[in-house]
From TrEMBL:
It is an enzyme of class 2 (transferase). Phosphate binds at R86, G124, T125, R126. Belongs to the RNase PH family. This is Ribonuclease PH. HAMAP family: RNase_PH.
Length: 237
């Protein structure tokens, strides 16, 4: 039995509230159970120096957690004077995941920055950030198309992410914190709407796993991503 009482292949309740903030070109508050992430997308008429003049657009991301997103207060990274390694790793993951679903030629030479701020954490914050980040990105691109700044839709395919793992010897979908902290195997799966893989992060956290177990987790991930993409589509319709 899972601590939450969910079935092995059951997601936490998912909701996506769009236009959550006033000023950003695109914004969404995604809730996956008790994990809540605010995602905002900002459009700028500039690109990083390494692609300047290429005609290509760029999508990047930043990620952070509020001090009381967790059970005990975390020190703000700004007060420490630098970002932690985990933060840098996650925001790079978000950026490259979102770029995989974008035609950068159609986007044109501009940058969209997706900021993902974790308001409350209960496992799966990077997955929620990617899933909600895509919604914010979609909304920002919609505004560019409505204004005529972008002619051809650069959004190739929805992008979503879900965690799966082996908890108490059983493969489970969408780990919350009690499961994540005790899982023998933990994985994050980033996919497109056409079920193409963008990235898979899997590690044994105290027990090895077999190829058959990995395939089972992949099947669970496909199910979870399909549900998330349905939620994205409904939110942006």
């Amino acid at each position: 039995m899972r601590p939450s009482g969910r079935a092995l292949d059951e997601m936490r309740p998912v909701s996506i509230e769009t236009d959550f903030t006033k000023h950003a070109e695109g914004s969404a508050l995604i809730r996956m159970g008790d994990t809540h992430v605010l995602c905002t997308a900002t459009v700028e008429d500039r690109v990083p120096p390494f692609i300047k003049g290429s005609g290509l657009g760029w999508v990047t991301a930043e990620y952070g957690m509020l001090p009381r997103a967790t059970n005990t207060r975390m020190r703000r990274e700004a007060s420490a004077g630098k970002q932690g390694g985990r933060t840098i790793e996650i925001q790079r993951l978000i950026g490259r995941s979102l770029r995989a679903g974008v035609d950068r030629v159609a986007l044109g030479e501009r940058q969209i920055t997706v900021d993902c701020d974790v308001l409350q954490a209960d496992g799966g914050t990077r997955c929620a950030s990617i899933t909600g980040g895509w919604v914010a990105l979609r909304l920002a691109v919609n505004k560019l198309m409505k204004s005529g700044d972008v002619i051809s839709d650069p959004m190739l395919d929805p992008v979503a992410a879900i965690s799966c793992g082996i908890y108490a010897g059983q493969p489970v979908l969408d780990l919350d914190y009690p499961e994540d902290s005790e899982a023998g195997v933990d994985g994050n799966f980033i996919m497109t709407g056409s079920r193409q893989l963008i990235e898979v992060q899997m590690s044994a956290e105290g027990a090895t796993y077999s190829r058959d177990q990995m395939n089972t987790l992949m099947d669970l991930a496909e199910k979870g991503v399909a549900e998330l993409i349905a939620a994205q589509t409904a939110a942006t319709a």
